[in-house]
Amino acid sequence: MGDKPAVHPATIVMDHGKENESVHLHSAALRAGIDIIYSPPAAPHTKGIVETWHNKLVEVQSLLPGFKGASPANHPKHAEKAALLTVADLHDALWEYVLTIYHQQPQEGLRDPVNTVLRASPQVVFDRYL
Question: What's the predicted TM-score (pTM) here?
Fold first, then answer.
């Protein structure tokens, strides 16, 4: 796929899920120089870009053989043995999708901050945020 952009976030936004409040995660973020901000309960709009990405990722995953839902607990045993793609193939395909389609395509859950009637792409929301 060629070069991929080097992304090093300064801050990440998460909800208060049990897995997001672990000492291990906080330690890793601290070592990487990343601040963690928790979104308030019942405020999905505070992490809309992440939520639309999760929804889209589940949609893409659902096309793969053996997919039985987003939870790994639902996956069939040894599904990787029947895989048609290698990990590197899947990695490259997801990067291609993210960079050329996902970031540019308007998402249902995102609105243009300037004109809230219009749907926005993650890239537009991010550009306006900056």
Answer: 0.41
On the question of pLDDT at 4 being above 60, the answer is no
Taking each helix axis from N to C end, the angle separating 122-129 and 48-61, rounded to the nearest 10 degrees, works out to: 160
CA-wise closest residue to 109 among 120, 94, 99 = 120
Phi, psi values for residue 82, rounded to 5°: -95, 5
Q: Which residue has the tokens 């096309």?
A: 63
Average pLDDT over residues 102-124: 83
- pLDDT of 1 reads 45
Dihedral, CA of residue 41, residue 42, residue 43 and residue 49, to nearest 10? 90
Residue 104 CA to residue 128 CA, distance in Å, equals 14
pLDDT one-digit tens code per residue, 47-98: 666 677 777 777 877 777 667 776 767 766 776 676 676 778 878 888 888 8
30, pLDDT greater than 60: yes
Q: CA 6, CA 102: separation in Å to the nearest integer?
A: 18
Please answer whether residues 33 and 26 qualify as being in contact, where contact means their C-beta atoms are separated by less than 8 angstroms.
Answer: no
Contact status, residue 16 vs residue 38, Cβ threshold 8 Å: yes
